[in-house]
Amino acid sequence: MSKGMDVAVLGTCNLDFISRVSRFAGADEEVNMDQLHQSTGGSAANSASTLSELGIKTGVISRVGEDYGGNLIRQSLTDKGIGTERIVSLDKPTGMAFIAVDDQGERSIYVHMGANAHFQLLDEDRTYIEDAKALHLTGMYWEVVEEASQYAEVLSFNPGMLLSSLGLSKLKKTIMRADILFLNQKEASILTGMEPSIGAEYLVERGVPRVILTMGRAGAALYTPHEKITSPAAEATVTDTTGAGDTFAAAFLASHLQGNDGSECLKKANQVASRQVEMWGGF
User: Fold this and answer.
1) Residue 92: alpha-carbon gap to chain centroid
2) Which end of the chain is more exposed for a tag (fewer CB within 10 A), N or C?
3) What number of other Cβ atoms are within 10 A of residue 279's Cβ?
4) Cβ atoms of residues 168 and 200 within 8 Å
5) CA distance 213 to 221
6) Domain locations in the chain as residue ranges
7) Per residue in 157-210, pLDDT tens?
8) Rounded distance, CA 267 to CA 269, Å?
9) What secondary structure does DSSP assign to 25-86, as a single string?
């Protein structure tokens, strides 16, 4: 049962295949993989992993295939104490991401959405959201996030590039329901059509209580109606930035739910994200 769940996370679950390469291949080129790493991934899995590790009772709402990948994802989440009762298996392949990481930690990503592309919100999902203290929405289609956001008591929204590219007019209803909105600089510009910091301020003026703008190595900033707080990125030796945004958002949300102020939430999120980028994958 979902009763008593701290956070329900709705988003994608994938198998990630992450390779280390000296450089990215161009057209008709072949580049050797120096290392190859397979793990559970996807925005929902990555976010839930961090939340659970930080002591937040977490369950995932997602779709996987009736296959090896789906079984592996469900078992990986279960092993971390994450609720999997709303991970529904479909007669479709489990989603996969093929990620190449170069020597600077930059990435090139190819994604096959698989079962994620066939997500439809069911009555059981709606009840799961209503029973949770908070809903963290990330990496899903507009129709799904628009409907799911209506059932959240507290809404944390990390739209990512795909949803941000739809623009503010399309996402307005979901964004205005958000208690916390996470954007990186590129997403903020694409979403609002403004310079990132101006776009973040505009969203707060429109009624979003907290907008967090992540700036990579420059750290992050929290915008509220009363203040702007900045926090530098923690020192890190970057191995792979896969899932860094998911990790940051989840760590901020965990700290917020634990009653910490904005400055402490930013500091905690930067610390946790810095540890994540020193490892392979986001899970």
Assistant:
1) 23
2) N
3) 14
4) no
5) 5
6) 7-276
7) 999 999 999 999 999 999 999 999 999 999 999 999 999 999 999 999 999 999
8) 6
9) --TT----EEEEEEEEESHHHHHHHHHHHTT--EEEEEEEESSHHHHHHHHHHHHTT-EEEE
Helix (H) or strand (E) holding 101: strand 95-101
Residue written as tokens 């994938």? Answer: 14
For the chain, how many residues are written? 283
Residues 102-137: tens digit of each pLDDT: 887 778 999 999 999 999 999 999 999 999 999 999
Query: Cα–Cα distance between 114 and 121 in angstroms, integer?
Result: 16
How does DSSP classify residue 150?
Answer: G
Q: What is the pLDDT of residues 67-85, one digit of tens each?
A: 999 999 999 999 999 999 9
Which is it for strands 228-231 and 220-223: parallel, antiparallel or unpaired?
antiparallel
Q: Hunting for tokens 């008709």 — which residue is that? A: 28
Distance in angstroms (rounded) separating the CA atoms of residues 265 and 33 = 37
Average pLDDT value for residue range 15-24: 93
Claim: this prediction has a pTM higher than 0.90: yes
183 phi/psi in degrees, rounded to 5: -140, 140
Structure tokens at 182: 């996470």
Q: How far is the C-alpha of 259 from the C-alpha of 267, rounded, in Å?
A: 14
CB neighbourhood size of 1 (10 A): 10
- Output the pLDDT for position 278: 81
Q: Measured between alpha carbons, how far is 94 from 113 in angstroms, rounded to an integer?
A: 8
Query: Tokens at residue 230, please?
Result: 């900045």
Give the integer Cα–Cα distance in Å for 71 and 52.
Answer: 20
Query: d(Cα 121, Cα 124) in Å, to the nearest integer?
Result: 8
